[in-house]
Write a structure and sequence with these properties.
The chain has 137 residues and is an all-alpha fold. It is built from seven helices and no strands. Helix 1 packs across helix 2 and helix 3 (56-66) runs antiparallel to helix 7. It is elongated. Mean pLDDT is 81; it is low at 123-132.
């Protein structure tokens, strides 16, 4: 991952953390205690968010479907990460929603979100260890 190249979705962060954990496990390399704790806590948190059920194809399909609306990159990312289900949540994510979109368009955005983004998958969160990984001191 290159510094300051762009924004990452929660799915991308979760994928990177899983890859790093797998690589560290395979190589039995030293992992500082604070890094192991942060990695564990972030992974545990992300398992209970919409990103746990997403994949690259779903994200591509979502971005393509939502591209007809003039949304900023940050707004698209927040829609993907938060998966709003109501107009109130949508208004909290999209700035000046009432001025930029009609109620019909806002409902269309919600319909796209509901149709393309899967519900939160709780089965993966059961695979997260109940304790942080052991690290060398």
């Amino acid at each position: 991952v290159e510094d300051n190249v762009g924004l990452l979705s929660n799915y991308e962060v979760l994928t990177i953390l899983k890859e790093k954990k797998k690589a560290a496990t395979e190589q039995t390399q030293y992992v500082p205690q604070n890094l192991a704790t942060v990695t564990y806590e972030v992974t545990k948190y992300l398992q209970d968010t919409p990103c746990s059920a997403q994949n690259e194809q779903i994200i591509k399909d979502f971005m393509l479907a939502i591209s007809k609306f003039k949304l900023t990159k940050a707004e698209k990312l927040m829609l993907l990460n938060q998966k709003p289900t109501s107009l109130v949540e949508l208004h909290l994510i999209i700035e000046e929603t009432e001025e930029r979109f009609s109620e019909e368009q806002s409902n269309e955005i919600l319909a796209i979100i509901e149709e393309i983004l899967p519900p939160i998958s709780h089965q993966e969160s059961e695979n997260v260890e109940t304790k942080p990984p052991k690290v060398e001191e």
